[in-house]
Design brief:
alpha/beta, 16 helices, six-stranded mixed beta sheet, seven-stranded mixed beta sheet, 504 residues, single chain
């Protein structure tokens, strides 16, 4: 049976290899006092780090990047042991994180530096500027499913913006978090990035520790608890929560490519992907061909305990019951398993499962499964596909396969990101913001939006010469008021007359 992290003493816990139950390492359970001490140290480091120029910070981050590249195999091995991810997938995840680190370090100055903005005719005597300044200390609460790429999407953008970071990794992947903090300190020489480990209480302590912002990735339910804890001190948050992403397949789609990508999106990382494929809506004209193609491919996939397994184990033990329950609910309500099914859920691994004829109100369609399962439904047209895709409280990502209509369909989807003729490709593009709407959270990481997420805007208006109309004075005259009214009418009054049908 898969094991959850164990507590061998009151002050430590063990991380467990989910594939075989071996102990990977022992880690401290940091107390509230220890978390506050880490944040206090981070405030000191933030003063030094923010005082550096963009170029100086960029050089430090590039040194860290070089260390990560040289130790890429070491990091991938640790990810394979602690989270269960196949080694090749671990390399890919770390490589994408390194690419984001490179982008953030190289673009922070362009995005955040002070720039002039227009002051407008009414304030023509003013010179206006805006810049984005670091908040101070950012707390990052990371997930276990992508223990490098996902938290680094907050960590590196916060660091590049000039903040210090205290990182609380998942209790399932603490060694990976420690590795990131250790290599950073080796590279920079100062603990601008620190790690605290433990369970939910440690994360709650970080929320209440006096950090200037929390970046959280995890379930919607836990995200709400994080927000509640942060609300006590008005600590702002960025929340990346769950998803129930769809793939839409239009009648002109490349069926082979769509099936291949959809299967990978559903089963890679053992389906434990917030932007993974959980629902597929296929135009009725190509439904049979698509189903035939994807099921044939899925039958050639299996998950097992071995270095050559294309699918890893389920990392979090309690997720087994969720996956089993969703499959059984779909079957009980008339759905059919073309591949896998109820017996696909083992002790540590779940085999690929493809479900059809599943009611839209089944938990397999409405709730996040987080396993290598997917539902496929036939739709009469793209209007129905869009309607079904949007009929969810989640709104993270989605994919569209169409040769001619991909953009038109994607624009209608209520989600933070979309991919056209690919799956999850948006996450690998550092220029693009990443985040959701609805129960998938709010705020953005990655790209220019991700850099600004960890800053506050500082606006400055500087008088260049005395104004013709001094509006901010009790000595303002009636004549000045009349001149202001005339100026506003001249600037904004033309073409704005209400028609007779709208008048009182």
């Amino acid at each position: 049976m898969t094991q959850a992290p164990a507590r061998p003493s009151a002050s430590t816990f063990e991380s467990i290899n989910p594939a075989n139950g071996d102990v990977v390492g022992t880690h401290p359970i940091h107390s509230e006092e220890e978390v506050r001490d880490a944040v206090a140290r981070a405030k000191v480091e933030a003063a030094w780090w923010s005082g550096l120029s963009f170029d100086e910070r960029g050089k430090h981050l590039s040194t860290w990047k070089g260390v990560m590249v040289r130790r890429l195999a070491q990091l991938a091995d640790l990810m394979h042991l602690e989270m269960g991810k196949p080694h090749g997938d671990a390399v890919m995840e770390a490589a994408l994180a390194i690419d984001h680190l490179n982008w953030a370090a190289g673009h922070a100055e362009k995005v955040l530096k002070r720039r002039r903005v227009a002051s407008g005719m009414l304030m023509v005597n003013q010179a206006a500027t805006v810049e984005y300044r670091p908040l101070g200390v950012v707390g990052v609460i990371g997930p276990w499913n992508y223990p490098v790429f996902t938290p680094m999407g907050s960590i590196v953008y916060a660091l590049a913006a000039g903040n210090a970071v205290v990182f609380k990794p998942s209790e399932y992947t603490p060694a990976i978090g420690e590795w990131l903090a250790r290599t950073f300190q080796e590279s920079v020489g100062r603990p601008v990035l620190q790690v605290v480990t433990g369970f939910g209480d440690t994360g709650a302590a970080l929320c209440r520790s006096g950090v200037d912002k929390i970046a959280f990735t995890g379930s919607t339910a836990t995200g709400k608890r994080v927000m509640a804890a942060c609300a006590e001190t008005l600590t702002p948050v960025v929340i990346e929560a769950g998803g129930k992403d769809s793939v839409i397949v239009d009648q002109d789609a490349d069926i082979e490519a769509a099936a291949d990508a959809a299967l990978w999106g559903a089963c890679s990382n053992a389906g434990q992907t917030c932007t993974g494929v959980e629902r597929i809506y296929v135009h009725e004209r190509v439904y049979d061909a698509f189903v035939s193609t994807i099921t044939e491919k899925a039958r050639g996939l299996s998950a097992f305990d071995g270095d050559d397994s294309p699918i890893g184990p389920i990392t979090m033990p309690k997720q087994m019951d969720v996956i089993r329950g969703h499959i059984q609910d779909a079957l009980d309500r008339g759905g059919r398993a073309l591949v896998g099914g109820a017996d696909a859920v083992g002790e540590r691994f779940v085999q690929p499962t493809i479900l059809v004829d599943v009611p839209e109100d089944s938990t397999a369609v409405t709730e996040e499964t987080f396993g290598p399962t997917v539902t496929i439904a036939k739709v009469r047209d793209m209007d129905e596909a869009v309607e079904r895709t949007n009929a969810t409280r989640y709104g993270l990502g989605n994919s569209v396969f169409s040769k001619a209509n991909g953009m038109a369909i994607a624009e209608r989807i209520r989600s933070g990101m979309s991919s056209i003729n690919g799956v999850i490709t948006f996450a690998a593009i550092p220029n693009l913001p990443f985040g959701g709407v609805g129960d998938s959270g709010f705020g953005r990481i990655h790209g220019a939006d991700g850099l600004k997420e960890f800053c506050y805007a500082k606006a400055i208006a500087r008088q260049r010469f005395k104004p013709m109309l001094n509006l901010t004075s009790f000595g303002r005259t009636e004549k000045a008021d009349q001149q202001l009214a005339s100026m506003v009418t001249m600037l904004h009054g033309r073409g704005t007359t209400v028609g007779p049908e709208l008048r009182d």
